Amino acid sequence: MARVGLLTGGGDCPGLNAVIRAAVRRGLADGGHSFVGFRYGWAGLLEDDALELTLESTAGILPRGGTILGTSRTNPFAKGRDGLGKIRRTLESRGVDALIPIGGEDTLGAALRLHSEGIPVVGVPKTIDNDLAGTDMTFGFQTAVQIVTDAVDRLHTTAESHNRVIVVEVMGRHAGWIATHAGIAGGADAILVPERPFDIEEVCARLRRRHERGRSFSIVVVAEGATPREGTLQTREGTATDAFGHARLGGIGTLLEREIESHTGYETRVTILGHVQRGGTPVAFDRVLATRFGVAAMDAIAAGRFGTMVALRGTEIIEVDLEEALREPKLLDPALYETAELFFG
After folding, report:
1. 129 and 147 inside one domain
2. Can you give the pTM of this predicted structure?
3. What percentage of the chain's residues is helix, strand, coil (to nearest 5)?
4. What is the mean pLDDT of the segment spanning 56-62?
5. Does residue 197 share a domain with residue 96?
6. Is 129 one of the catalytic residues?
7. Residue range(s) defining the domain that contains residue 243
8. Domain check: are 129 and 30 in the same one?
9. For the CA atoms of the chain, what is the radius of gyration?
10. What 3-state DSSP class applies to 268?
11. Can you name the residues that pair with 201 across neighbouring β-strands?
12. Quick one: 269 and 181 in the same domain?
């Protein structure tokens, strides 16, 4: 019988509670394992802030968005912090035998470092951006795509009513999965992603051609990490960063609003969906995937297969080495973007 710790790190995401619920249910069914949840990601381990996870405390959380444990972008190995020592002391005082960190690149990167120091960990991948290598899909992604698609559907009617171009800024720091999936599903007239630096003149030319064919409105979906082709458009560099050194993005939509109206003369408005993409109840796909991940994580712990991450490959849940999963980000499939381009303009 093992005592298992869980934490959720990084941005919140629909489906986190489903993972927690599934891991606890699997552990209790398998022989009375006990569970402790650390609050606010790695901060809970550093500060010994935790709560017991039981059948009763995890009942009814499947459809809830967010995370009952809370989350943060705390970096346990930030300069000047005795992260490893504090984590070891907390785990020992709580009697924790193994740890399930649920998070993205940064959370699982910290988990890999703990594994290299001999702490038993099994990771669960979480990011609405869907940019983690090693898994075909992450939970939360489908919910985010549905939220953006619903927004684009609604924006179509107001754009058409006012003869406007509407720019929709969505999440996607390094990869344009959300923008492309939601752009295709919502019938966007242009999709701008980090993997394809854009030329503002080409974007505006597409919009002009569309208007010349009698269409008086357009929808442009842009990922927050999209950038102009070098030398084509000046952007303002942001200076704020998070605990892991990532720039806090946002603002590309506002820039495009100004530039498109200036270049074309078409009235243009921007809608920045922001954190609404993370919020609310998860769609059915994400509930099922998160549940399967939680069960598989407990199976890996029971078998002693540490230093791994559970992952979706095809229709199967497998385990991959954390090191492999974090080697490089999973960028947008070029073939998918080429399909989207058929409908631009």
Report:
1. no
2. 0.91
3. 40, 20, 40
4. 96
5. no
6. yes
7. 143-279
8. yes
9. 22
10. strand
11. none
12. yes
